[in-house]
Design a protein that fits this description.
Layout (H helix, E strand, L loop, with lengths): L3 E6 L3 H16 L3 E2 L8 E6 L4 H20 L4 E6 H5 L1 H7 L3 E5 L7 H9 L4 E3 L22 E5 L1 E2 L10 H5 L3 E2 L2 H13 L4 E5 L7 E3 L5 E3 H9 L6 E5 L8 H9 L6 E3 L7 H6 L6 H14 L4 E8 L6 H14 L3 E6 L7 H5 L6 H24 L5 E9 L6 E5 L5 E5 L8 E9 L4 E5 L2
Parallel strand pairs: 1-2, 1-3, 3-4, 4-5, 5-6, 7-10, 10-13, 14-15, 15-16, 19-21
Antiparallel strand pairs: 8-9, 11-12, 17-18, 17-20, 18-19, 20-21
Length: about 450
């Protein structure tokens, strides 16, 4: 019986959390999870379909594994997650060393699928669900440091942004029972974890009604998780600007252990582009939400996502995005060139008409501006003291540790007698654009 599984995960935090769910399902059935690909009977690749280069990396990895298969005749390769959902028939036809393809809503069938594969049957299951949340599955914490953990609170998305493939690979929104979320977060805290991040494609739209039709909103869920203990930090990702409510900001302001950091994807500073992207807000609405964040929590960090060179973007549109960066002054940004994804609204109805050189130029301008803003923001932190959750050893020196403050900024400091998993007060003494440097206050 081939019962050793090796899992590789690509893409977002949701994908990492999904890998932990799959491990839990397989372990229930007697499969063991191994740390080295050479020890495995099954290599399973959890995939991302958000950008073309992510899919190309996965294709390359599948072909690299042919050499291992030539030495290990029993080795079977499977692909699961978003790319599997999008490219089921192509993957099975074009990658003849792939034995199984499983979509995001079919993980409960994974043990059965592996049994079929063991018997020589190539198989696929990519049927999407309107109800599956894996609420009863206790994830195996593969990607955790024992201090911070992800907790999925919902699945799917129905915003249908023009550039995005997620609604087609993960299905419609459905929210997990809040009782199971609170129980999972409480168990993590009882097991020594000091921080949880609540995950969803758009956490602001979390809604769950119980049998008595009592509706739990996202602000109510945040309150309940925060009340587990003042020693448990609570974060969340990701927020959609159209759904960011004052009620949520009021709850955040009321609980010091809810971290002062909001990831608020803007994508563009141009109203014309936002309408083409189907983002359901204007630049002014976005700025009003930023003003509300700073009104309730002046110390809150704001981070974002942005796309350079979306269909028909003009220089004027690009300048509007740069202006948005100057006005908001993000602490961090994920910045990308537009990549046309098959099956999206843009792919069906728009033309990817900005050439690569121009996309690159615009992206480089955004990156340069954001680097300058991040450095200036960090320079203002010098002299301030923060409570830092220690996460581990600095990459540069055994004599230093690193952790993050409530604003999710990384701070590196001399070890002294601090230990991972504890809180220390650190005063910022210097910085780079990406990192704060400091010293522990006695």
């Amino acid at each position: 019986m081939y019962d050793k599984v090796y899992i590789e995960s690509y893409g977002c935090q949701m994908n990492l959390a999904d890998s932990e769910v799959v491990c839990a399902i397989l372990q229930r059935e007697g499969y063991s999870i191994v740390d080295a690909v050479e020890d495995a009977d099954y290599v399973m690749i959890n995939t991302c379909a958000i950008r073309e280069n992510a899919e190309q990396r996965i294709r390359k990895r599948v072909r690299e594994l042919r050499a291992l298969q030539s030495r290990h005749q029993q080795l079977r390769i499977g692909i699961f997650g978003c790319m599997a959902e999008r490219l089921q028939s192509q993957l099975m036809a074009e990658e003849d060393n792939v034995s199984f393809v499983v979509g995001p809503d079919a993980y409960r069938r994974m043990p059965e699928i592996l049994r079929q594969v063991r018997e020589g049957v190539r198989t696929a299951d990519t049927e999407l669900s309107t109800t599956e949340t894996y609420a009863d599955i206790e994830p195996v914490r593969l990607h955790s440091n024992g201090i911070s953990a992800f907790v999925s609170i919902m699945r799917g998305c129905q915003n249908y942004c023009a550039y995005c493939v997620v609604p087609y690979t993960r299905g419609r929104e459905r929210s997990r029972d809040p009782e199971t979320i609170v129980a999972e977060a409480r168990q993590l805290f009882d097991n020594g974890y000091k921080e949880v991040t609540l995950l969803g494609q758009n956490v602001n739209s979390y809604r769950h009604s119980d049998a008595e039709e009592h509706m739990t909103s996202f602000p109510e869920l945040m309150r309940r998780v925060a009340e587990i203990s003042p020693l448990l930090r609570v974060r969340f990702a990701t927020s959609h600007p159209k759904d960011l409510s004052d009620e949520l900001l009021q709850v955040m302001a009321a609980y010091p252990n809810i971290c002062r950091c909001i990831h608020l994807p803007v994508q563009s500073g141009s109203d014309r582009m936002l309408k083409l992207m189907n983002r359901h807000y204007t630049a002014q609405w976005y700025l009003d939400r930023v003003d509300a964040i700073r009104r309730y929590m002046p110390d809150c960090s704001i981070t974002t996502d942005v796309i350079a060179g979306f269909c028909s973007e003009t220089e004027e549109d690009h300048q509007a995005t740069l202006d948005m960066f100057r006005r908001v002054r993000y602490d961090y940004a994920y910045m990308f060139k537009y990549s046309m994804r098959p099956d999206t609204f843009a792919h069906r109805h728009m033309v990817d008409d900005i050439d690569e050189a121009e996309k690159t130029r615009r992206l480089e301008e955004i990156i340069a501006l954001q680097g300058q803003i991040a450095l200036e923001n960090n320079q203002k932190e010098i002299g301030r003291t923060y409570e830092v959750l220690v996460e581990g050893r600095s990459h540069r020196s055994d004599k230093q540790l690193f952790g993050r403050n409530s604003q999710n900024k990384v701070i590196v400091f001399d070890r002294e007698d601090a230990q991972p998993g504890t809180y220390v007060n650190v005063t910022v003494t210097s910085c780079t654009a990406a990192t704060l440097l400091g010293k522990i206050e006695k």
